[in-house]
Amino acid sequence: MIRELAADLVELIFEWGYLGIFLLMTVESSFVPFPSEIVLIPAGYLASKGDMSISMIMISALGGSMAGAYINYFLALLLGRKILRRYGKYFFIKEDALVKMDTYFKKHGHISTFIGRLVPGIRQLISIPAGLSRMNLAVFSTYTALGAGIWALILVMLGYFIGENQELIDSYLKQITIAVLMVLVLLASWYIYYQKTKRIE
Question: How many domains does the chain have?
Fold first, then answer.
């Protein structure tokens, strides 16, 4: 089923071109849980055949990722607090929890956004607390673009070099995901250590 979907996406991307990549990545980056690998790996494969440009794929993918992230960010910014103030008590979310979240994102929003964009299952959701806490838009945009860009490049390159071999893709994607998560754990550990030493000074 996944292979059939991937084949359909290759055809869709080929027909719609870079607009198709942009729209699918917008969906992937917003509320709808849609795996970016079944968009960008086929796109990378098309680039290897000379049917698409890697630079244009990256621009389209990054543009779509940012558009989806902004949808979540601004929905949370404009509506999130009103909803939580009204219904938060039913989910045990109190006003002081929002204050703590605001404080956290002012101090650590940049690293949280960057790491979140690289973690499967979280990358679509990290924009919501950023919007709720009114995270600086320029900082949010910078670190969202950085994280989304790195992940998109990994997937496009995977499709470019081994796009025809589904078994290799599955194997390498698992290995890459594990490697990325390990690097993120190291980055988070360094950041925590840095923050502690900064407080001591």
Answer: 1
What is the crossing angle of helices 18-29 and 2-16, to 10°? 130
Q: Which amino acid is at 70?
A: Y
C-alpha–C-alpha distance, residues 110 and 82, integer Å: 24
Q: Specify the length of the chain in residues.
A: 201
* pTM of the full structure: 0.77
Per-residue pLDDT 10s for the chain (201 aa) are 445 655 566 566 667 889 988 988 888 888 766 677 778 888 888 888 888 899 999 999 999 999 999 998 998 888 766 766 665 554 445 556 666 666 767 777 788 888 888 887 777 788 888 888 888 899 999 999 999 999 999 889 888 887 666 565 566 567 766 776 787 778 777 767 666 676 655
Q: How many other CB atoms are found less than 10 A from the CB of residue 182? A: 10
> Where does residue 165 fall: left (phi above 0), alpha (psi -120 to 50 degrees), or beta otherwise?
beta
Kindly give the interhelix angle for 37-48 and 137-162, rounded to the nearest 10 degrees.
Answer: 50
Domain holding 175, by residue range, is 2-200
